[in-house]
Amino acid sequence: MGCIPNLRLLHLFENNLQGSIPRELGESTQLQNIDLFINNPTSTIPLEFQNLTNLEELQLFSNYLEGHIPFLIGYNSNLSVLDLSDNNIVVNIPSYLCKYEKLMFLSLGSNRLFGNMPFGLKTCKSLKQLMLGGNLRIRSLPVDLYQLQNLSSLDINQNRFSGSLPPGVGKLGNLKRLHLSDNYFTRKIPPEIGNLTQLVAFNISSNWLSGDTPRDLGNCMGLQRLDLSRNQFTGSVPEEIGKLVNVEIQKLSDNRLTGEIPITLSSLSRLTELQMGGNVFFWCHTCRAWST
Asked: For the chain, first and last CA: distance in Å?
């Protein structure tokens, strides 16, 4: 496939394309949208893609791409969507992905990325969805990540983040989806988590968190999915957790929680899945609602 001078949109997703992605595509300088996801290419991302000055969307996820992300991708274009997830890409995240602050969606999950997030990404005010899960090599959760005030979705599960969850997470007031599972976070969840009143899904399972279950989660009245399982939480479940009227799935299993199962859970009319096994709970026999 050679250069097509006036080509603006190229969709070849879900085929059986194999071999190398044609470098000649980088000469089709009018290209704005490239979707080659779910194929079988085994090459690297062509360096010539750096020359696509009109490129706005590049989706190459679920392939067998290797090597690194071209260093200058996004440097000469108004890139808004970049999805390279589910490949075998290595090395650092490029610095210029958000040079013109147009980038809204970035998914690099399930690769082999390592190193810290570049400054140009941590200050990308246009970014709304950031997915870096399943890399296993990214260890540092930068404090200035919380400058991304427009983030609605943050997924950094299955990495090696450690230490305390910074209180700055409470500054991401537009977050609706926060996935931090399968890391090495320790200590308590900061009370600032209660500032995320737009949250719909919160998953921080499979970490090493301890202390009390944060009452401040009761401020997140829009929560539909809450997963605190497989941690080291102690004490009783606060009544505030039982007042999340929109919750559909709630997982508190495999912790060190004790005491009575909160009576407030009986009023959660939308609840379809409740997992609290692997703790030390007991029934509240004097609570009438549980026995009716």
From this structure: 70
pLDDT tens for 85-116 read 999 988 677 878 888 889 999 999 888 877 66
Q: Which residues contact 259 (CB under 8 A, 6 or more apart)?
A: 235, 236, 237, 281, 282
Residue 195 located in a structural domain: yes
Contact between residue 142 and residue 116 where contact means Cβ atoms under 8 Å apart: yes
| DSSP state letters, 211-231 | EEPPGGGGG-TT-SEEE--SS
Distance CA(253)–CA(154), nearest Å, equals: 23
Task: Name, in order, each residue with C-beta under 8 angstroms of 48's C-beta and a sequence gap of 6 or more.
Answer: 23, 24, 25, 26, 27
**What's 81's domain CATH number?**
3.80.10.10
Q: What distance in Å separates the CA atoms of residue 101 and residue 229, rounded to the nearest whole number?
A: 37
Domain of residue 78 covers 1-151
- Pick from 161, 168, 169: which is nearest to 186 by CA? 161
**CA 251: distance to chain centroid?**
19
